[in-house]
Amino acid sequence: MRFEINKLINKKIVIFIILLSVLINGIYSSNIVKKNNSLETIHYKTGTDRIYDKVSGKITSEKISYIYNEYIRLEKIISEENFSKDFDENTYTGFIFSDRNFFNELYNNIQYCINYSSQCETISKRASENVQLYKIKKNNYLLNYNEKISEIYSGRYISDYYKTTGWDKYFNYQFSNLIVVMLVIFIMCNIFSSEREENMSVILLTSRRGKNRLVLRKIMASVLISTVLSLVFYIEDFLIFFLGLELKGMNNPIYSLQEFQLCPLNINIFEFIVYIFVCKIAGIIVFNTLIILASSLAGNNLMSCVISIIFTVAVIAVNIMKLPADVLCLLSPQLYLKDYNVVRFLDIPVLKVSFNLSFALVIFLFLLISVWFLETKWGKFKRRERV
Question: How far apart are CA 120 and CA 138, in angstroms?
Fold first, then answer.
């Protein structure tokens, strides 16, 4: 397998393109971080960090009182116009208005954490009431749907508060997906077609077991390379955003982020990131297998590229049409986990991401069998036909 890996990536142009892609992705994501940080002055960041250090952690009545009293104090100063509009070192952020706005936002965030449990209990209670209704109507799907909602949102609470600004920038970043997909096409589209173009397939078919082992090694090499490429870019994304934006609160539940308040997964932010990594890698592996199928179908490298592009357009079209079976959604699973986004399967509501993880496994096996057949059984048949 080492030989096949070297054959695919141990080329100056391939190494150059990979390194250039890593650099471009790093620069692009770093610019987003810098743009976000440029909105804060040093004094503002120092002051707000001091406040965050004071209120972070376990939510207590003392912390809530401190935030509320500071907001009321600042609001009173502004209403009485007893302040300077110039830079003031005695303020937290440098300006009274900035202080007031910051504490207002902070108070709203704390209130979200406090009220979240009761809001979820209301959702769970309404779902339980709907269960009784759909039992009478004998609607199994809506019965199961509401039972799931009642189960998911029951017992939720947020006990700790941390600065969560910046997580939205990380979770909405998708440029690396585009780069990985393009690299997979670039590296894998000639994995089998190049043999036919160079007339090597005729020689390989004369060996009884050589072709079988070669196909297996090529497939394993392609899966390994696509997995490593995915990890490189997705870890790069995480490190740049995590360090650049000083992201905190990874032990907090994912629904502590207001953008994910209806997320159906009862896991913390760190576990959510790992889950996203798994989904993204699964999606890339399936896409990689689709590209090697294109190469297996093609008689030369140019045709392989054309078929790869056609397959890619088809996958994008399925995503645009929002069909239940949509492997492309695995590349951005966080977008489908902001609420209870499900697929109806045998009267059972299944999370769309979970459904497509299972679907990806089925498609992956089907594509592998197809490639194996095309490169071994069908190849031998075509060889005998020529003879």
Answer: 26
> Are 22 and 233 a contacting pair, CB within 8 Å?
yes
Of 261, 251, 318, 266, which is closest to residue 290 (Cα–Cα)? 318
Q: Can you read off the two tokens belonging to residue 351?
A: 């999370």
Q: What distance in Å separates the CA atoms of residue 245 and residue 237, rounded to the nearest whole number? A: 12
pLDDT digits (tens, 9 = 90+) for 127-153: 999 999 998 888 999 999 999 999 999
Task: Write phi, then psi, for 159 (nearest 5 degrees).
Answer: -95, -20
Please name the amino acid found at residue 110: I
Look-up of token digits 């390994």: 224
pLDDT digits (tens, 9 = 90+) for 55-108: 988 999 999 999 999 989 888 888 887 777 778 778 888 888 888 889 988 999
For the chain, the domains span: 2-37+163-386, 57-161
Q: Which residues neighbour 197 within 8 Å (Cβ) at sequence distance 6 or greater?
A: 190, 299, 300, 301
Q: Phi-psi category of 160—alpha, beta or left, where left has phi over 0 and alpha has psi -120 to 50?
A: beta
